[in-house]
């Protein structure tokens, strides 16, 4: 049976359009259809591809409704025997959250490769076409699996990827875990294992059936942090809070006291570190559950945990 790649478009800078070819910052994201992005890449001419426009947004405006639709389309495609992999075109601002969401919800045994760009499609030298070609290389690589982000020749696993620069072409890193590998001259040089997570049972079904998503926010600890923001969120009905702590997850005493009050009122809590690299080691002061993820991905985890519960 011939194998095909399913491409799902969601917009982003890779589909952006600027007023002129020199405009790398003032462009509008999510303007070029995914079928047109693929049509402009001759190297993909011999690949069996089907494409669908799932969304057309600037990824800063990513919503849980878009994530729900994307997860459903991925699940449907992954279940088809003739589908080898999924490639998703996505904006860079929230691509790490989408990658982790799909990895947690679907635990895919086939590759889901998220491709992005730092320059719009109309730039004089856009990076999107090469990132797309690299994404297809990863998607077709024997043994590839799980959700990964491909950008500037690097392959980043869903749990570790994070945006580390606001405008450089190689804007992503994987912290001290390191990237899964590199795409070099049309081949993947693999450095470590592909992402794997345990299947989540009924989680995907719960996501599709949910009438609303649990409200979870991130609060950040720092000099002079004030617990009143926590009290206000609790009063407004927040369901979960991720505390982005300093260093090894330490929290300002005022903020931690407010979080304790929130916990007594039934709000679910998690702790992450503001640090770009490393994870929380041991048990920091207090007993808030520590996450090895970035605050943004710890928030995704807490949303999913609340849905599963």
UniProtKB/TrEMBL annotation:
InterPro entries: AsnASE_II, Asp/glu_Ase-like_sf, Asparaginase/glutaminase-like, Asparaginase/glutaminase_AS1, Asparaginase/glutaminase_AS2, Asparaginase_C, L-asparaginase_C, L-asparaginase_N. This is Asparaginase. The active site is at residues 13, 92. Belongs to the asparaginase 1 family. GO terms for biological process: asparagine metabolic process. Pfam families: Asparaginase, Asparaginase_C. CDD domains: L-asparaginase_II. Keywords: Hydrolase. It comes from the Bacteria. GO terms for molecular function: asparaginase activity. PANTHER family: 60 KDA LYSOPHOSPHOLIPASE, L-ASPARAGINASE. SMART domains: Asparaginase (SM00870). Substrate binds at residues 59, 92-93. Residues 216-304 form the Asparaginase/glutaminase C-terminal domain. Residues 4-191 form the L-asparaginase N-terminal domain. It comes from Ramlibacter humi.
């Amino acid at each position: 049976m011939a194998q095909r790649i399913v491409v799902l478009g969601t917009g982003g800078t890779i589909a952006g359009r600027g007023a002129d070819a020199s405009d790398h910052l003032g462009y509008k994201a999510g303007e070029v259809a995914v079928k047109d992005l693929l049509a402009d890449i001759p190297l993909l001419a011999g690949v069996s591809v089907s494409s669908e426009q799932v969304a057309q947004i600037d990824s800063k405006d990513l919503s849980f409704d878009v994530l729900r639709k994307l997860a459903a389309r991925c699940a449907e495609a992954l279940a088809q025997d003739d589908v080898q992999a999924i490639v998703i075109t996505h904006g860079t601002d929230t691509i790490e959250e989408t990658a982790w969401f799909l990895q947690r919800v679907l635990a895919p045994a086939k590759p889901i490769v998220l491709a992005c760009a730092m320059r719009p499609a109309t730039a004089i030298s856009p990076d999107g076409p090469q990132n797309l070609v690299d994404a297809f290389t990863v998607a077709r690589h024997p043994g590839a699996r799980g959700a990964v982000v491909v950008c500037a020749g690097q392959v980043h696993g869903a749990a570790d990827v994070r945006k580390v620069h606001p405008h450089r072409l190689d804007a992503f890193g994987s912290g001290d875990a390191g990237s899964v590998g590199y795409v070099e001259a049309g081949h993947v040089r693999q450095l470590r294992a592909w992402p794997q997570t345990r299947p989540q049972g009924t989680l995907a079904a719960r996501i599709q059936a949910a009438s609303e998503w649990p409200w979870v926010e991130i609060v950040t600890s720092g000099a002079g942090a004030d617990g009143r923001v926590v009290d206000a969120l609790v009063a407004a009905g927040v369901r979960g809070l991720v505390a982005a702590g300093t260093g090894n997850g330490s929290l300002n005493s005022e903020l931690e006291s407010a979080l304790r009050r929130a916990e007594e009122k039934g709000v679910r809590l998690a702790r992450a570190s503001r640090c770009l690299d490393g994870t929380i080691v041991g048990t920091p002061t207090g007993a808030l559950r520590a996450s090895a993820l970035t605050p943004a991905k710890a928030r995704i985890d807490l949303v999913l945990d609340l849905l599963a519960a």
